[in-house]
Design brief:
single chain; 9-stranded mixed β-sheet; alpha/beta; globular; 6 helices; 31% helix
Length: 225
Amino acid sequence: MGYKYEIHSHTSQASRCSRMSGLDLVKFYKNLGFAGLIVTDHFFTGNSSVPREMPWEERVDIFCSGYDEAYEAGQEYGMDVFFAWEFTYQNADFLTYGLDKQWLYDHSDMEKWEAKEYFDITHADGAFIVHAHPFRQAAYITGFHLFPELTDAVEVINSSMPDIVNERAEWYANEYNLLKIVGSDTHYKERKYLSAMIYNTRLDNMQDFIERTINGEFTTENIYL
């Protein structure tokens, strides 16, 4: 059966659109039999709830507080909890795995980076970048921004999105031969299904997640609630 992981989730401490705290996320996924989750809160360039007028390190501390709570809860409930984030550039969202809180402390100018600069610098430091829901539609989105040569994978099933969004993501990944992953984009409990990444053994850390994902050592499953 394998070990189920959620790789796209948001906490209310850092993501303005989330209604679940870090503790809520862990309890929710534990009750559904998941082995772990990755917290991918909206960074300051997206729908962040972190005040902009504070000093950089204080902003980073608040940003990481949802993950911190989830991690502590994971220790209590026997869940693996890992850290990542969702970086937004002109309404395109990129899940960024493999970097840590200290990396954020050290890059206080990153809000000003253009897309290519972001990809180049994060990749140089070992990041794995997934274009989340690349064809998401909303009233404020006036176009799609695609970077097939600069991203590592595409989220082809996002269980928070309509089918048409996922179908277009599947087409995009096929056209550019990009790795396909799935996620739930969890902000609240009320939903029809979740999309899990499944591994044969528990993940050791984020590097283990990246290596095994790149190597295709996973299966996926939609879990209906």
